[in-house]
Amino acid sequence: MTQYxxxxxxxxxxxxxxxxxxxxxxxxxxxxxxxxxxxxxxxxVVFTDCQFIGCDFSNxxxxxxxxxxxxxxxxxxxxxxxKTSLIxxxxxxxxxxxxxxxxxIAYRLSLSHCTLTGSVWKDIAFNEPESTQSQSRWECCTxxxxxxxxxxxxxxxxxxxxxxxxxxxxxxFNHCRFVGGNLNITSSAPISFLGSDLRxxxxxxxxxxxxxxxxxxxxxxxxxxxxxxxQVKVC
Length: 235
Prior knowledge:
mainly beta; 9-stranded parallel β-sheet; 8-stranded parallel β-sheet; 2 helices
């Protein structure tokens, strides 16, 4: 169990840049309780073994920062990232359960071995304007009851992710590659996997009623079970 060396309450931090400078851009074993990082500049910072209890990252600049073994869901208190900039940000072995991630910029976002249960991802700008690709990578992430809505993620890679009972609406996972793992999608509004490679992913539980698999790569079993053999490329 992590022994937190420093604890910060709501009014402890008046200038987050002072804290970053104090620790040379690397912050380890700190606990933040209801701290507002709103409008803070947190670029190129490394957070390791930290916990964030009910913290607000709205409008913060977290570009090219890394979070290692950080917990954003403590005592059922969630963190929110609204209009946060997460360009090139990395989350590794983090608990992002319950996090509210809305209207953020997330080009080249990387998630590895993260728990996402109950998190909400809404209106995310994953794709870089010039390339129309996200270059986002999700690896060995798990979670249930995740909400995805109102975004497009192009040419991302999902490796061995176990995403069960995902409620997705108005989402486009186009030209993405899914390697291993489980993808259980339920939707009451359109969702697209245009041109995506899903051959190595378990789609048990996914229903095709609102899902567009046009041009997607599926194996024969997947295509037959979903009843979409004419829309997809069966390999």
